[in-house]
Every structure is written in C-alpha cells, then in structure tokens.
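Treating backbone geometry as a discrete language has practical consequences that deserve illustration. In the encoding step, the backbone of a single protein was reduced to a row of integers, each denoting a local shape. The amino acid sequence and the backbone structure tokens for this protein are reproduced below.
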Amino acid sequence: MDYLRDHPDDVARYTLSHLWLSVVPVVIGLLVALPLGWVAARYRWTYAPMTNLAGLLYTIPSLALFVLMPLIIGTKILSPVNVVVALTVYTVALLVRVVADALAAVSPEVRAAATAMGFTGPGRFLKVDLPIAVPVIVAGLRVAVVSNVSLVSVSALIGIAQLGSLFTEGFGLFDTGEVLLGVLLCLVLAVVLDLLVVLGGRLLTPWQRAVVRR
C-alpha cells in the first residue's frame, strides 16, 4: 500500500492502460468470431479446420507473439497495438469454437418455428439463433476476459506500461509489496470485468430471469 500511496497517478495510469488492453481485444475478437462461428455452424465441413486452426493459434506463447507482431503488422516494438492485435487473435481463437457450438445447439424445431413465423436469413440469426446462443457465448467471453487480464501483464516484459509493470519494477527493486499490489489489482480488475460480462448476459436474456422466478 506504500507504493499506492506514493504513486497514485502511476497506479491509475497502469490500471486504465491494462483495462483498455484487456477489453478492446475482446470486443474486436467477438465481432470477428461471430461470423466465423456462424460459418462453422452453418457449413459443418468448415468446423474441424476452423476450430483446429483456432486451437493452434491459442497455443502460441504470448511473449513470442508480442515480439513477432511488429514484424507481421509493421508496428514499433513498444506500440500497444501489438498487444491489442495479439490478444484479439487469442480471443478469436477461443471464441470461434464457442460461437459455433452455441449456434449449432439451437434446436431444429426452434429454427423451423422461427421460419414459419417469417424469420429467415440474417433476421432469424439476429432475433432467434443469436439470442438463444447468448448464455454459451457469455461463458466463453468470461474466460476470454479473465485470460486477457492475465496475458496483458506479460507485455510488461517488452516495455508496455500496464499493471504488469508493477511486477517488473517490483522484482527489479526487490519490492515485494509492489508486486503484490500488481497481483491484487489484476485480480480486482478480472473480477469486475467478469461481473460486467455476467450482467451484460443477463440483460440480453431477460426471459431466463422470468423462468427462474417461476
């Protein structure tokens, strides 16, 4: 707590940077994973190659990907864009299978009923398939958010300022308190973001609350 008292501006800056680097890749990754997951669920022959490729991408060590990203996209080594793009890749890799499985789990009877009511194509996807798949997708988002909070801290090793900087600074100064503060703030951030994802899922599925009340 001594470091927090003596450096409140640095802690606030690190926290905001960590928050931004954690959340933006999840949002972008979800937007990319939704159409890819739909393709994998709609055309089953694409499911295996897409999910296998996603699994391979997720196994790439984060530090290696952070270092290689400037060579791939032409940015500077200290650019936060490297972290955003790398974590977006991880998020897409994690969510493609989740989205595909969630959409494939929508029963044919529900789809047939929706078609009979006049829902077809994109309309059925947005108003029927996707809302039913929301609980499963939310579960995947919770994993992605918490994973990103953890992975962002690794980027401190290449000089990206965020809560992981408290680890590297504290280790270099043999200051255990600073390291523990970084760990605590990462845990708090992960819990808060997880709760926000859960709350968002509940707001998007009001019919589930009605079922529970019954």
Notes: The chain has a mean pLDDT of 87. The radius of gyration is 20 Å. The chain has one domain: 2-213.
